[in-house]
Amino acid sequence: MNITLNKNDEIVMKLIHYFITEKGYNPIILHGAKDEIWLENNAENYQIVRIVTNYIHNKEQLDFDLYRAKTIMKKIGHKTFTFKMNALSIFVNLGDNVNINDSNLKNIDIAYLQDFNDINKYSFITENFPDIIEHENTGEKGLELFMKITEEINEKNTKEAKKAEDVFAKKTPYVTYGLIIINILAYILVALQGDIFTIDPDTLYKYGGLVEYTKGTDYTFFTRLITSMFLHGGIIHLGLNMYCLYVLGPQLESFYGKIKYTIIYLLSGIIGGLFTLLFINSTTVSIGASGAIFGLLGALLYFG
């Protein structure tokens, strides 16, 4: 089999290979987009890398192309809660009368590559990706280059698929079950001192409830930040919180792992307790796992 790559195809394949396998960019599927490839990685200075193979024959077409790219970037930003996005638009097929220096859009840097080594003309590329020339100028041409790039991209996709499978695979959420058991046992212990359905504030304070006036005067204040998140004022309060923990916990424990998940839960509960002190009066007892659960919800949204 004889595969011949023209110079533009070779540039595009090298760019795709570098950004996907070396920099961890992922393709974005855009309906209706032709002759352009969009790659995304929010961890890089350029969250978007756009490779345009379409022939741009005049300045008006270039300006429209960049305006359209800006509009799509805004939509991506809204969906990913990214308020500022920087993009690198790389063109490989411009008309002789098109000068990219005449177009200047905020947050979009433009490069025109007639040869892969033209990357050296653009300091904003070499500063952000200093190894791109060295990494891709390996000497392969035609079929050899095509096979190498295809194989390495497939290997990268296989690793990513295995990683995703490990993350989303069903696991027994031991930490979540343990937290639920601790909350239930704590409720039973405290409830035995009085009404099983509703526990009075004095009893809750006695067993570790958080009260505003203890701050700075009671040496147990810092321990109460922990104990208060395992206490509940009634069986309905307990039931609702444990149901939420049962729904959210297993997913987060699988996504983040047992140690990070435990840290997220405890820190969220502590921060929630401190935040509650800003709004309660001096005699109100703050208890419950709600702060920790809201923290888990935020962690789930962040992961998504």
Quick recap of the structure?
With 304 residues, this protein is of the alpha/beta class. It folds into 2 domains: 7-164; 174-303, Rhomboid-like (Rhomboid-like fold), CATH 1.20.1540.10. It is 53% helix and 9% strand.
List the topology elements.
Layout: H1 7-22, E1 26-27, E2 36-40, E3 48-52, H2 59-79, E4 87-91, E5 108-112, H3 123-128, H4 132-136, H5 142-168, H6 174-191, H7 201-206, E6 210-211, H8 221-227, H9 235-256, H10 258-276, E7 285-286, H11 290-303
Parallel strand pairs: 3-4, 4-5
Antiparallel strand pairs: 1-2, 2-3, 6-7
Helix pairs in contact: 1-5, 6-9, 9-10, 9-11, 10-11
What this model shows, in words?
This protein is of the alpha/beta class and 304 residues long. It has 2 domains: 158 residues; 130 residues, Up-down Bundle (Rhomboid-like fold). The chain has 11 helices and 7 strands. The chain has a 5-stranded mixed sheet, with helices on both faces. A two-stranded antiparallel sheet has the order 6-7. It is elongated, with a radius of gyration of 28 Å. It starts with 6 loop residues before the first helix and ends with a helix.
